[in-house]
Specification:
The protein has 673 residues and is an alpha/beta fold. It is built from 26 helices and 18 strands. The longest helix has 19 residues. The structure holds a DNA duplex (15 and 10 nucleotides).
DNA sequence: TGTAACTCCCCTCCG
DNA sequence: GGGAGTTACA
């Protein structure tokens, strides 16, 4: 048995960490040491002689898994990280990927499949859509994103399409038959191209376990399965766990129903609520001692979640004791909110709470735009999590497409994208070129046989030479070298295609740099699809110790994190709850849990801000909007907060003029009247 | 056949 | 504010 020193745990945490075999459910309120407990359980299992390579640890993000293993390994001192390195840790999707590459061959799956990210999947959906041509009905067919989310929700919730449409996409219900045909065609398109989308990773895993032999092998392969953030798993994921544990019942799940915020991805809160019924003999342990926040913050968050009708009742108690009441700040305008936040950030910074210990949270990524401009103007370094992904930027997708073609020449999506970059190549030539390549059995030399205007033919030949020289056996010098060679071809195109080539080239530099850490193209492509960098600066590598930056994050991306100071901005009706999520009571309840998650991130200072008045251009039809405070903090809850009101101090010179605006308007009209 | 300019419509949150 | 579809023109 390895040398083992467990962190100091309280009695409830210790019970969870050292529970025996069989199903275990830990209901862990916000800040109750969930990570610590799960990490301790991993360490405890290993200390009991369980082989780490026979433990599966499923987490919500890759970061969470790394953090968990880092903490678990501490229990074993210096040998820890080496000892626990063989644990199967990661998200459901990444573990599925690993299992399918190992065991997929048994059911005839090509182990060299490519993983499609959401945008690729949408594009493929679009291709199927065009091939089917549903335009005859006169009315517009749902757009590709909508089609993909309908598809994805059906798959992940295991609900029939009719029900999914009625409940979540009622405006698409008339297209039910067409959507069925589309989904069939989309599935075939994926098979032809040897690609799997995110949902396929889970689906194939689930169906792999439908084979009796494989199910037995996989049950026996893992002595223990542990799942974090169980409240955010969906029906398909729960079914996978059922099949993974049909023979061996050792399953530990941890979560908090009050923090379930992923129903848009078909998360089923019922998974955690009904776990004891679905897994008879479950040991249930509740963690209610909060180590994160001061009592006044908990008083407020307890009251907020208390208003939720369906939940496991629990009351969090703080060990941190007293502190300032959370502040509820009414701002006249968005500018006042920005001013307040920026000034407070600097104030806390001066008093010893550095930028790293502060975070600004928003419901939706773009609502931080105004604030970000001010942070930049004042030279306050920050990192943004959530919202537009690095990998969605056009130039990154371009470069990744080159790599994907090298890896899988049948990937027509990627090939088309590259072809369209060439001057003079539109949909028609790209289509012919793609067909020629696939007729040639995936040999890009076929590009040279295309008839097109001379300059286009020359470009095609150049591209063909580049690709074949990079795919030649024995020439691969690693992904970074591939990227370097691709860029000698692609960089000039960036100049022509984009107005701002320089920042884009810097992104490409970063991509090239991180790629050097990967031993193969396939690994690089898959890892980037399954664990995309959360913010651009993620790519810059671990920052040095004295770097200090403020966090700006969506509430969703803030899950599991904590800061001394938290500012929740735009807590106004229409934004939180989002006006797009007020369709039914369940959706409103999820918005309430979002507010709860946001507020429970704070350790010592919590500021909830809501501007009263918005000036909006473009995105909304009206030019301004008067908002009220979020309905989740009704009047009777205000006693939990310290109330404040902010307006920007504008000093107007007091001059008494006799001229009125109406006079000026009159004279202006005089010009043409 | 490709491209630029224009219109219309819809949008959140993420692996 | 941006993606997708349409139209006019090179």
């Amino acid at each position: 048995m390895p040398e083992f020193q467990i962190d100091d745990l309280n009695p409830e945490q210790l019970r969870a960490a050292s529970a025996g075999n069989g199903p275990v459910l830990a209901i862990a309120g916000a800040g109750t040491g969930k990570t610590k407990t799960l990490a301790a359980r991993v360490a405890w299992l290993v200390s009991q002689g369980i082989d780490p390579s026979r433990i599966m640890l499923l987490t919500f993000t890759r970061r969470a898994s790394d953090e968990m293993l880092r903490r678990a390994s501490r229990a074993f001192g210096e040998a820890g990280s080496c000892l626990l390195g063989s644990i199967w840790g990661g998200t459901f999707h990444s573990v599925a990927n690993r299992l399918l590459r190992t065991y997929g061959g048994a059911i005839g799956l090509d182990p060299n499949f490519t993983v499609l990210d959401q945008l690729d999947a949408e594009d493929l959906m679009d291709i199927s859509l065009h091939n089917l041509d549903f335009s005859s009905k006169g009315k517009r067919f749902p757009r590709k994103q909508t089609c993909l989310s309908i598809y994805s929700r059906c798959v992940n919730s295991a609900d029939p399409i009719h029900h999914t449409l009625a409940a979540f996409f009622p405006w698409c219900i008339e297209w039910e038959q067409e959507l069925r045909r589309l989904f069939t065609s989309y599935t075939e398109a994926k098979q032809e191209r040897h690609v799997l989308d995110y949902d396929d990773l889970l689906l194939y895993w689930f169906h792999l376990l439908g084979d009796e032999t494989l199910a037995r092998i996989l049950n026996e392969r893992f002595d223990h399965i542990l799942v974090d953030e169980y409240q955010d798993t969906n029906r398909l994921q729960a079914s996978i766990l059922h099949r993974m544990r049909s023979l061996n019942r050792n399953l530990t799940v941890v979560g908090d129903d009050a923090q379930s915020i992923y129903s848009f991805r078909a998360a089923a809160i019922g998974n955690i609520l009904n776990f004891p019924a679905e897994f008879p003999g479950t040991t249930v342990i509740a963690l209610e001692t909060n180590y994160r926040s001061t009592q006044p913050i908990l008083d407020a968050t307890n009251r907020i979640i208390e208003l939720s009708p369906r939940r496991h009742a629990k009351e969090l108690r703080s060990v941190k004791g007293e502190g300032p009441k959370p502040a509820l700040i009414t701002c006249e305008r968005e500018e006042d909110q920005t001013d307040f936040v920026v000034e407070k950030v600097l104030e806390h910074n001066e008093h010893g709470l550095g930028l790293r210990r502060q975070a600004i949270l928003v419901r939706t990524a773009y609502w931080s735009d105004h604030l970000e401009i001010e942070l930049t103007r004042r030279n306050i370094p920050y990192r943004k999590y959530g919202g537009l992904k690095f990998l969605e930027a056009a130039h990154i997708k371009d470069l990744m497409s080159f790599l994907r073609v090298l890896e899988n020449p049948r990937d027509q999506l990627a090939l088309t994208r590259i072809l369209r970059l060439l001057e003079g190549v539109g949909p028609a030539i790209a289509k012919r070129a793609c067909e020629a390549v696939s007729e040639f059995g995936g040999d890009v030399a076929a590009l040279k046989s295309i008839t097109a205007p001379a300059p286009v033919e020359a470009e095609l030949a150049k591209l063909a030479n580049l690709i074949s020289s990079l795919t030649m056996k024995g020439t691969s010098g690693g992904v970074a070298l591939d990227i370097e060679r691709i860029r000698s071809f692609y960089d000039p195109l960036v100049e022509r295609l984009y107005e701002n080539p320089d920042p884009r080239k810097r992104d490409l530099d970063q991509l090239e740099q991180i790629s050097s850490a990967y031993s193969s193209r396939q690994l690089f492509l898959t890892e980037l699809a399954l664990d995309p960098p959360q913010s651009t600066s993620d790519l810059a590598g671990p920052p040095s110790k004295d770097d200090d930056w403020l966090t700006v994050s969506t509430i969703h991306s803030a899950k599991g994190c904590e800061w001394d100071v938290v500012y929740l901005i735009h807590a106004s009706d229409g934004i939180l709850p989002s006006d797009l999520a007020t369709g039914d009571a369940d959706q409103i309840e999820e918005e309430r849990r979002l507010l709860y998650v946001a507020c429970t991130r704070a350790k010592r200072y919590l500021y909830v801000l809501h501007p009263l008045r918005y000036y909006l251009k473009g995105r909304h039809s009206h030019s301004h909007l008067y908002s009220q405070l979020t309905r989740f903090i009704p009047h009777e809850l205000k006693s939990c907060f310290q109330l404040d009101r902010r307006t920007r101090a504008v000093s107007e010179p007091q001059i008494a003029a006799s001229l009125r605006v109406s006079d000026i308007q009159k004279s202006i009209r005089g010009i043409w009247e």
